[in-house]
Amino acid sequence: MLLIRTPVASLLVVDAIKEWIQEMLADSTVSNLSGMFDATNSKLSEISVNVGSTPSAWNASVFNMIKGLSETVIIPIAGLILAIVMTLELIKLVTERNNLADLEIAIFLKWILKTAASIILVANCWNIVMGIFDAAQTVVSRATGYVASEHLTTMDMNGLRERLLSMELSEVLSLWLQSLIIMICSSAVSIVVFIIIYGRMFEIYLVTAMAPIPMATLTNSKWGNIGENYIRLLFALAFRAFLIIVCLAIYDLIVQGTVDLSTATTIKNGMWQVLGYTVLVCFMLFKTDGMAKGIFNAH
Predict the structure, then answer these.
(1) Which residues contact 189 (CB under 8 A, 6 or more apart)?
(2) Each residue of 11-38: pLDDT tens digit?
(3) CA–CA dist 211, 238 (Å, integer)
(4) Residue 293 and residue 299 in contact, taking contact as beta carbons nearer than 8 Å
(5) pLDDT at 132 (0 to 100)
(6) pLDDT tens figures, 278-292
(7) pLDDT digits (tens, 9 = 90+) for 172-189
(8) Helix-then-strand count for the chain, H and E
(9) Which residues contact residue 197 at a Cβ distance below 8 angstroms, ignoring those fewer than 6 apart?
(10) In sequence order, which residues have a C-beta less than 8 Å from that of residue 230 and are 6 or more positions away?
């Protein structure tokens, strides 16, 4: 009897081990799938909240430091540049009139008005810059609803564990390995999203710190292209947030319903498709910088 029972007992032990392994892999797979895009979704939600923030609202400490540096270090330099630019402007206006032989009072009035306008622009450059970002923030705030956190990628896990347990052990093992790889990739993608959002804000602070200098050249006929390009750059940086929001809205709509959890094949295909879309949206988020500058012809 012992010889007869031993093989049966061995089979029971093997089946029990296989069942335990399959249950463990199924639980781990469900956990990987359910949390696969938690990190990415968290960063996308962070973008939808932070991308529409003005420089003053995003980080008050950094904003005050940049503003202080601009007012104490850059404005004196801008004043010197303004003096040079307007002196050259006066010389040009005078010499154009037949080498001082045909002077009119209107020439000096024109120069005084341009100089006064330049001084006002330099003195109020921070109000002008923040006005641009406030206008963009109004537009972006209306678009953030498209990528609200509750609309980001989620998966219905009801019955998934039971379907995994009904599959072959090899299929469950394959799905577990793939879900683990994709979860790691998704974590890396979330880092990319972090770099995009914070890199944009760093660029905004660096550009706005230099605001008085290009503002000092804005009214000059020869140097004015510096100030004009700077204004276009500010609009590009500000409205890039809108393009980012649109990218996230498109991603949200495409991904919804992509994953079908009915069979092993559809689970596998769905996971890789969603990961592909996530990598694609990160690539497009990087592209929004060039798109915004192209739209406003900034360089």
Answers:
(1) 40, 275, 278, 279, 282
(2) 777 777 877 887 888 788 777 777 666 6
(3) 14
(4) yes
(5) 92
(6) 788 888 888 999 999
(7) 888 888 888 877 777 777
(8) 12, 0
(9) 43, 46, 47, 50, 51, 244
(10) 207, 211, 214, 215
